[in-house]
Amino acid sequence: MQFKINPVSPVPSSVTESNNGLHSKSKFLAGTDQNIMRKLLLPVALVALLTANVSAATVSFAWGAVHSPSGGEFIATTSANGTFKTFCIEKNEYIGLGGTLHNYSISSGAIQGGVSGGNPDPISFGTAYIYNQFLAGTLPNYNSSDVTNQTDLQDAFWMLEGEITYKANVYIAAAKLALSKTDAEMIADGNGIYGVKAMNVTTLAGGIAQDQLIKIPVGSDNFTPVPDGGTTFVMLGMACASCGLIRRKLAFSV
User: Which domain holds residue 100?
Assistant: First the structure.
């Protein structure tokens, strides 16, 4: 038996040319995609770098014309929370004065905890209540121009935070009477009441420094970002604009 083998028909030149054209176009689009991705990643990388550079808030501290010998009142000038008066809550740590910049973040307690330890060491109920009164200007028997008053108030915060031996001095005694609280209730965790929290201070190199009191709106996040004058939004806008151009290029190329 014999079989008849039909000859294979040659591929039309038009099909070969078409396939070659598709192959060339695929290579072209692949190269175009790589160029587009490089252009897309550049503004995104710039935004990420910029965001990383502004992630830490800064603060400097100064004493007023009248102050206690070794503590507050301090005047804190911050990059993100304005300027306000504060007191330290860690007796055995230190801050630089006279324009020295520090980094800071905000949390519910002192980092490293000072003399009494705890990491974090929560702000007490008594400290929150008395500092809130101080900022509101309603703290009984307190005069900012009186060194004795400032010293007694700083001591009250140190007692309530376990930094020195506890006793009901004039400001703690007044708070206990007003609140009908026991000593144990005064030194208990305040859980962020009145919006009073800890400003966790570090040196610019990341070393520990003396934590301070701060009041923020109740319910606010602990971390406080640094305002950057809108630069980040400008960079994000550039990235979005780049994405729009890339989309139009892809649509034109296909």
Answer: 57-215
